[in-house]
Design goal:
mainly alpha, 9 helices, Single alpha-helices involved in coiled-coils or other helix-helix interfaces
Length: 181
Amino acid sequence: MPRISPIDSATARPEARPLLDAVQAQLGGTPNFIRVLANAPKALEGFLGLYGAAGGFTLDKALQERIALAVAEGTACEYCVSAHTAIGSQAGLSNDEMLLNRRGGSGCTRSAAAVALARALNDNLGDITDQQFAAARSAGLGDAEVVEIIALVALNIFTNLIGKATQVDIDFPRVSLLQAA
């Protein structure tokens, strides 16, 4: 049972209602995670702002989902692993690739470097080694891409914290964490 109740658009505070309605219009549904965030409209607005900005990143949607899966598994957020498995499938990722991502790797060399950097950032709260940074560089990741990876890790840590702390009900096909499997 969730620790914080999800907010319905019909009963949302006036400043949260248009945000919830926009998510509903864009996705055709409003995930429970978003509905929990609606308890704090400015937090929801901040999340949607960075999430929307990520849509214009140089890193494509599939790589963003690879990173989200690595972070979700690294933080042990079952809600986010479930959500990003569903979204990753929509972005064209295979089940085998998503399993590699959750373990901190990828079948693609460049994506593997990005996922490894994301996992190192997550596991070490940003305090990565020169070798970890150099590995991303030698795979061809430039300044903009490294900054985008850092931003995606931060965004995903935020969502994982919300998911875990509030124990939001999973409204995607449930995917168990690897350590629980």
